[in-house]
Write a structure and sequence with these properties.
The chain contains twelve helices and 19 strands. The protein has 437 residues and is of the alpha/beta class. Strands 11-6-1-2-3-19 form a six-stranded mixed sheet, sandwiched between helices. It has a five-stranded mixed sheet with strand order 14-13-12-17-18, sandwiched between helices. Helix 10 links the parallel strand 17 and strand 18. This is Cell division protein FtsA.
């Protein structure tokens, strides 16, 4: 029985009250920290689930280091990168952070749906009954090697009658619940937590990257009718499926936009920096009529600056990039078909993430997935700098939405636990003194 699940300890924001929230996006190619003020907002038409308006007061952004495919690979470099972006946000907001919400893509992220039921003996459903049935699901879903990140009730049933959103106050003989459980490998989570402790930051809550991306980019009608959100990150691509307003499925594969950059670098024998520039300025995954005639200058690795750059047709770049994108989309489609999620997600896909802004990606996805496709950007966040308004910042924007919806989740109560390499409060103070002076 696992006693250290990572389900949220976060206290939901109170209706009508303003609060501060700090979020940290730890990616493989970039890291971003945002401090925002959540202020009550009137209910809107398109984003009905949001009770608060997020206004950014501190923003820090920088390249990632010590992280590969969401997994910590160098604890010293990761610590330095996190300290840099958190420090930028703290200086902009004029305050010091003690805890943050952090995203997780690492540890073979996956999801399963579990069901459980409890007897009511004809009594009225109370909150204790809901907690009891959720505990029953939790006890069935835990495994020693995996930590539960989210336990999201996606539907209640009373005496076999499904489709009940909130059964409290109703009477019946048997209360059942279906719960979507998102989990990751425990050791990968522990290393992430250890890095943050070295930065003197507590984890207030862990949010799965695909869940956060969906919260930021989907409108309520999409989430109600059925939709899948694909987040093309630097070294990972994640997918989440929403139906009836709830996330019902999450998955991740360890291929992302940086792999396209490496493909270009290897095939054209250019540096990784030049390959990134070529991909950004000239790259497309959809061939054009003039691609064979349009010539692109390239500087081979090892060439001196006084040498004339070589030239290749733009079509060559397209032929290098397209197979990798098709590989990613095909892998996602096959996984969703194997779990039955292609039917659950309806007829719509939303593409987001930094690598989703490639020319022609939406058209290739439309052909390969046989679904309607649109591009998704963060919605309903005020005060974001221009650099952070694009699809690359969907995850960090979704983490600002998360405190408004986390009340739906089951959170397992747990005590304070020790981590490898930390020995409680006194040792942390000693570490701080040693590292600071």
């Amino acid at each position: 029985m696992m006693i250290d699940a990572m389900t949220s300890r976060l206290r939901p924001v109170q209706p009508g009250k303003t609060t501060l929230v700090a979020v940290l996006d730890i990616g493989s190619t970039k890291m971003c920290c945002i401090i925002a003020r959540l202020a009550p907002r009137p209910e809107g038409r398109s984003l009905r689930g949001r009770t608060h308006q997020a206004e950014v007061i501190g923003f820090g952004y920088g390249p990632a280091s010590g992280v590969k495919s969401g997994v910590v690979t160098d604890i010293e470099k990761a610590e330095q990168a996190i300290r840099t972006v958190v420090g930028m946000a703290e200086r902009a907001a004029g305050l010091t952070l003690e805890s943050v919400l952090v995203n997780v893509t690492a540890g073979r992220l996956g999801s399963e749906t579990f069901s459980a039921a409890v007897s009511l003996d004809g009594q009225e459903v109370e909150k204790a009954d809901i907690v009891k049935v959720l505990k029953a699901v939790n006890s069935r879903s835990v495994r020693p090697e995996r930590s539960i990140i989210h336990a999201l009730p996606i539907g209640y049933a009373l005496d076999g009658q499904k489709g009940i959103n909130d059964p409290r106050g109703m009477v019946g003989e048997k209360l059942g619940v279906d719960v979507a459980v998102v989990s990751a490998e425990t050791l990968a989570m522990r290393n992430l937590e250890l890095v943050l402790h070295r930065c003197h930051l507590q984890i207030e809550a862990v949010v799965a990257t695909p869940y956060a991306s969906g919260l930021a980019t989907l409108v309520d009608d999409e989430a109600q009718l059925g939709v899948a959100c694909i987040d093309f990150g630097g070294a990972t691509t994640t997918v989440s499926v929403f139906n009836d307003g709830h996330m019902v499925y999450a998955d991740a594969i360890a291929i992302g936009g940086h792999h396209l950059t490496l493909d270009v670098a290897r095939q054209l024998s250019v540096s990784v920096a030049d390959a990134e520039r070529l991909k950004t300025f000239y790259g497309s995954v959809l061939p054009g009529q003039s691609d064979e005639r349009d010539m692109i200058p390239i500087q081979p690795v090892g060439a001196s600056h006084d040498e004339a750059p070589g030239q290749i047709p733009r079509a060559v770049l397209t032929r290098i990039m397209r197979p990798r994108i098709e590989e990613i989309l095909t892998a996602i489609r096959d996984r969703m078909q194997a779990t039955g999620m292609m039917d659950v997600c309806g007829r719509r896909f939303v593409l987001t993430g930094g690598a989703s802004e490639m020319t022609g990606l939406s058209e290739v996805a439309r052909r390969l997935l046989a679904r309607n496709v649109r591009m998704g950007r963060p919605m309903g966040i005020a005060g974001l700098p221009d650099i952070a308004k694009g699809a690359a910042f969907a995850t960090v924007a979704g983490m600002l939405v998360y405190p408004q919806v986390c009340a739906q989740e089951y959170a397992e109560p747990r005590g304070i636990r020790k981590l490898t390499g930390t020995d409680g409060y006194i040792a942390r103070v000693g570490n701080w003194l040693r590292s600071s002076f």
